[in-house]
Specification:
The protein is mostly helical. α7 crosses α8.
Length: 196
Amino acid sequence: MTTPVCTSASDAATPARQTRPYAPYPSFASYVKARQPVLLRTARSLTANPSDAEDLLQTALTKTYVAWDRIEDHRALDGYVRRALLNTRTSQWRKRKVDEFACDELPEPDVLPTGDPAEQQALHDAMWRAITKLPARQRAMVVLRYYEDLSEAQTAEVLGVSVGTVKSAVSRALGKLREDPELSPVRREEARATNT
């Protein structure tokens, strides 16, 4: 009687895959060595944490390396890497998590007068409906400035526009939000609070 021999599924499967040998690009290594300090400054302008900036740059450089043989004009590499930095950071903002920090004492929340939760939810929903009525560009700027808490300069850099464009577009957007009829209860509440 023979004892069955077990083989792993990968051994019994098809022959080993043919993989392309690793082929580093010497020009990429030279580029990174020469431009890393400048690119790291750009990454640091996109995030407050220096470690996150280094990770952001590493991810952008990885994307650049993967596309290296498809980049036709190597004189425009800085622009390519900056765009990779911005796109990566933007997708991180979209998927951002809440950071947790250990502390010795639990912070006591300030006791604020709380309103009716149903009213607060209705106000929140009305605000979002009003924001979705804005043109796409103004909506993006309002979200980046007030929901993502970016500065005007950071918002301009993410969207590839000037700071002046951000200021004027946000100003017009806030004007439209002030005129939105769904938000009139907010204005009445603010007026009542300032008069008391």
